[in-house]
TrEMBL record, chains A, B:
GO cellular component term of the entry, any: cytoplasm
Protein name per Swiss-Prot or TrEMBL: Phosphoribosyl-AMP cyclohydrolase
Example of a GO biological process term: L-histidine biosynthetic process
Species: Advenella kashmirensis W13003
Designated gene of the protein: hisI
Domain Phosphoribosyl-AMP cyclohydrolase per the UniProt entry, residue ranges: 29-103
Main localization category: cytoplasm
Keywords, in A-Z order: Amino-acid biosynthesis, Cytoplasm, Histidine biosynthesis, Hydrolase, Magnesium, Metal-binding, Zinc
Catalytic activity, as annotated: 1-(5-phospho-beta-D-ribosyl)-ATP + H2O = 1-(5-phospho-beta-D-ribosyl)-5'-AMP + diphosphate + H(+); 1-(5-phospho-beta-D-ribosyl)-5'-AMP + H2O = 1-(5-phospho-beta-D-ribosyl)-5-[(5-phospho-beta-D-ribosylamino)methylideneamino]imidazole-4-carboxamide
Binding site residues for Zn(2+): 77, 94, 101
Length: 130, 130
């Protein structure tokens, strides 16, 4: 059985992929892959996703320069989530210019909860995409 | 705006949730939450998911004892993925008795690729669910 046939793509032909920084262990982002994106990721060791909004392959960093070098590809027990270990070029994965897309944390106090931004903007998005 | 209204649930009312071990930084599992599961997770600091197969709330560890104490809840930039920092009771998150559900890694050599199991079974699933 081909390795890619063990991956369970959903009804839209997609599987979620988590990118984790190999150095810090931080979760940088979650995006989607179709079969072609996953195959190209494995072949080139560069993260390639499927952009659901643009409906095309999204070679991470193709516009921003923030590519991801992939050192490991993992699959979960039921085969429907991919986990990539990556080295993040420029130290910025998020389109907002932050290291991680998970830059909001729920703060709870006195029975109230709200999302607090915990991460600094490291790179100006304006300059990142021009 | 209520914090939970900033979470983008999909057409089925679900959002994927990643559980990351706060000590090791390892990704333990990915599951789904509906609004009720997320609210209960935040209220109780115990991970509660929505079981798509059983179509009911799944209080992680309710059968196996492998509960997850939640120390942080994060949200990504487009609001459609939750990241939990957890302390995994028993050190086992996967129903196969392994620490992590991501126990397979793609091994590539001589142009061939295959999934290799990299994690030991720490607890016998037979005893875990009886």
């Amino acid at each position: 059985m081909n390795w890619i046939d063990e991956v369970v793509f959903d009804a839209d032909g997609l599987v979620p992929a988590i990118a984790q920084d190999g150095q810090s262990g931080r979760i940088l982002m979650v995006a989607w892959m179709n079969r072609e994106a996953l195959q190209e990721t494995v072949d080139t060791h560069r993260a390639v996703y499927w952009s659901r909004s643009r409906k095309r392959l999204w070679r991470k960093g193709e516009e921003s320069g923030n590519t991801q070098q992939v050192s490991a590809v993992r699959l979960d027990c039921d085969g429907d989530v991919i986990l990539l270990t990556v080295e993040q070029a420029g130290g910025v994965a998020c389109h907002t210019g932050r290291e991680s897309c998970f830059f909001r944390e729920l703060a709870q106090a006195d029975g109230l909860a709200e999302w607090k931004v915990t991460d600094a903007v490291l790179k100006d998005p304006e300059t990142m995409y021009k």
